[in-house]
């Protein structure tokens, strides 16, 4: 079990916090929710939910964020707060910091102040949906770089009834097959050419 602190309770932060908690992790959420309703609603959905100003270094110290494995700065539209909190959690000793950016310039600044990883959920999802719409055989895609990605695809009709060796995907398409999902939902990892 890892310990995560999620700062900012927009839809991205809420989804992330709830999912991490459901996966069995210890999750603290922090938000400056003026109404306190949002923070209250998170009680029971995560380990701890706190209404506080995460741009205040003393608040972060009192919550002992330095003891968390990962900090996720999911602050909404306030770029200044996002940048300040990213810098503070890194300076306080959080090992790995993920920050949400709104554009490329914001992403560059977040990296400069200490983010280990920057995500742009709207942009990333837009790219994934566009690729899925473009290729009817593409189910999902995870891009590691421009050269490397993992894709889940449906087999094309000409592959039916053939082995991986017969299809010869490496030579024909430049692909390496890392797993095969059979019709009964059984997944075979590192399948041999005879499959």
Automatic annotation (TrEMBL):
Gene Ontology BP terms: potassium ion transport
Protein's UniProt name: Putative TrkA
Stored Gene3D superfamilies: NAD(P)-binding Rossmann-like Domain (3.40.50.720), Regulator of K+ conductance, C-terminal domain (3.30.70.1450)
Pfam families linked: TrkA_N (PF02254)
Domain of life of the native organism: Bacteria
Domain RCK N-terminal: 1-120
Originating organism: Thermoanaerobacter ethanolicus
InterPro entries: NAD(P)-bd_dom_sf (IPR036291), RCK_C_sf (IPR036721), RCK_N (IPR003148), Trk_Ktr_HKT_K-transport (IPR050721)
Lineage: Bacteria, Bacillati, Bacillota, Clostridia, Thermoanaerobacterales
């Amino acid at each position: 079990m890892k310990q995560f602190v999620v700062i900012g309770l927009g839809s991205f932060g809420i989804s992330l916090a709830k999912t991490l908690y459901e996966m069995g992790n210890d999750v603290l959420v922090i938000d400056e929710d003026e109404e306190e309703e949002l923070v209250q609603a998170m009680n029971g959905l995560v380990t701890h939910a706190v209404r506080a100003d995460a741009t205040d270094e003393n608040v972060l110290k009192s919550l002992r964020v330095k003891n968390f494995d990962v900090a996720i700065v999911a602050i909404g539209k306030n770029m200044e707060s996002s940048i300040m909190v990213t810098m503070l959690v890194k300076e306080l000793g959080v090992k790995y910091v993920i920050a949400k950016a709104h554009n490329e310039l914001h992403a560059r600044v977040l990296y400069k102040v200490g983010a280990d990883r920057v995500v742009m959920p709207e942009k990333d999802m837009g790219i994934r949906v566009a690729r899925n719409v473009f290729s009817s055989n593409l189910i999902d895609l995870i891009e590691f770089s421009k050269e490397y990605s993992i894709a889940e695809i449906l087999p094309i009709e000409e592959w039916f009834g053939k082995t991986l060796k017969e299809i010869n995907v490496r030579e024909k398409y430049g692909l390496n097959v890392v797993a095969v999902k059979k019709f009964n939902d059984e997944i075979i990892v590192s399948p041999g050419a005879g499959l």
